[in-house]
Amino acid sequence: MTTTPLRLLIHGASGRMGQALLRLAADNPALQVVAAVNRRSPAQRVVEGVPHFASSELAGAPQFDVAIDFSLPEGFDPVLALCVERGAGFVSGTTGISEAQRQALIQAAGRIPLVWASNFSLGVAVLDELVERAAAALAGWDCDIVESHHTQKKDAPSGTALTLGAAAEKGGAQPQYASLRAGDIVGEHLVQFTGLGERIELTHRATNRDIFARGALFAASQLPGRAPGSYRVRDLLDGAT
Ligand code: NAD
Questions:
Q1: What are phi and psi of 171, to 5 degrees?
Q2: What is the pLDDT of residues 146-195, one digit of tens each?
Q3: b (16+ CB within 10 A) / e for 141-158
Q4: Fewest beta carbons within 10 Å, which of 27, 116, 193, 241?
């Protein structure tokens, strides 16, 4: 039995994440990339056999089922608007988005199914739960979040650090943040709880950005057929089993 492949638009295709998404999608017969969108000219081709578009040509992209966006906040609005206009799903890992862009996500969730996550790895989903529990159990301890990334990363603190901070706040802590930019670090997050004479350190280290790309492709595969709404990766995992 043959099934129709899921049609994907990859936004930010020439970037580190975009290239990982294109490479992994090419190996999966259930996925078909119908448009790869880069900021610059379509001549900046990433993968042969995939139609490439400049971001100025986004409106002319062929119909797709889900857009996966790993770009920059400047590129976020047009691709979200296109998904709403086309009735397509939206998966985004773009970090550093503004409050207005968060509001736009909430509005869009009334019309289409979407996932925005600051980190698509399974390990960080688990760390998030651990941080909330530790914060709740360690009232009065200091909570510090230290994140380290490669020197090209623009936003700080990282979106993941802020998500972990929100989990700590839910548990009653008041986290402080520190950011390091060095070499080619894919992503490290240390959440440290310090009391008098003792300390707990919870660390996640990403050594390969394929973990984020796999998570985003998984999320995209779970959106078609779902009611409009804003889903977490965890929600989709529950539905897949
Ligand atoms: P990158 O700088 O390597 O690539 C950025 C891409 O965005 C390029 O293809 C560029 O052409 C495109 N772009 C930039 N401005 C654009 C615009 N105005 N319109 C259209 N496209 C535009 O970055 P990266 O390392 O691939 O990361 C991309 C984003 O994903 C960042 O926000 C990063 O923080 C985030 N990220 C999220 C996760 C996660 O799991 N959520 C993991 C890794 C990275």
A1: -80, 0
A2: 999 999 998 999 999 999 999 999 999 999 999 999 999 999 999 999 99
A3: bebbbbbbbeeebebebb
A4: 241
Average pLDDT, the chain: 93
Report residue 93's pLDDT band, with 50, 70 and 90 as the boundaries.
Answer: very high
- Bridge partners (DSSP) listed for residue 159: none
In contact, 193 and 200? CB cutoff 8 Å: yes
Residue for token digits 């009735």?
87
Pocket test for ligand 1, best of 9, 55, 71 (most atoms within 8 A of CB): 71
Q: Which residues are catalytic, by number?
A: 149, 153
> How much is the average pLDDT of 68-82?
97
Specify the pairing of strand 142-149 against strand 187-194: antiparallel
From 217, 221, 215, select the one nearest 234 (Cα to Cα): 215
Cα distance between residue 137 and residue 114, in whole Å: 33
Q: How far is the CA of 87 from the centre of ligand 1 (A)?
A: 23
In angstroms, what is the span from residue 142 Cα to ligand 1's centroid? 33
Q: Find out whether 39 and 15 touch, Cβ atoms under 8 Å.
A: no
N- to C-terminal Cα distance for the chain? 22
Q: How would DSSP label each residue in 159-190?
A: HHHHHHHHHHHHTT---EEEEEE-TT--EEEE
Alpha carbon distance 217, 73 (integer Å): 20
Of the pLDDT bands very low, low, confident and very high (cuts 50, 70, 90), residue 3 is confident
Percent of the chain at pLDDT exceeding 90: 83
